[in-house]
Design goal:
By secondary structure, the chain is mainly α. The protein contains 3 helices and no strands. Helix 1 (about 1-10) packs antiparallel against helix 2 (about 20-40) and helix 2 packs antiparallel against helix 3 (about 50-85).
Length: about 90
């Protein structure tokens, strides 16, 4: 649940970037996997560990893409501040 909250906070109300597109795709994938998991036996069967690995891989990609988004915003604002300091 915390991953969904963090993803929604990081995605809503901001301009679209490539990193946000990746985060949105991972969030949609994770949502569809969790909905399908309600009706499918692969998520509770011990003979299908690759399905659980794919879920955690998707969560990891989502977290990394959100961190990249935060870093790109931070570096862009630092660049703007540096350029602005030279003008004054």
């Amino acid at each position: 649940m915390a991953v969904f909250q963090r993803a929604l906070r990081g995605l809503l109300g901001k301009e679209p970037t490539e990193e946000r597109a990746y985060a949105l795709a991972c969030l949609a994938t994770l949502t569809s996997v969790l909905v399908a998991g309600v009706f499918d036996h692969h998520f509770v069967d011990i003979h299908f560990p690759h399905v659980a690995a794919m879920v955690w891989l998707t969560v990891g990609l989502l977290v990394v893409s959100l961190r990249l988004t935060d870093e790109s915003i931070g570096s862009a604002s630092a660049t703007i501040k540096q350029k602005g300091d030279g003008l004054l």
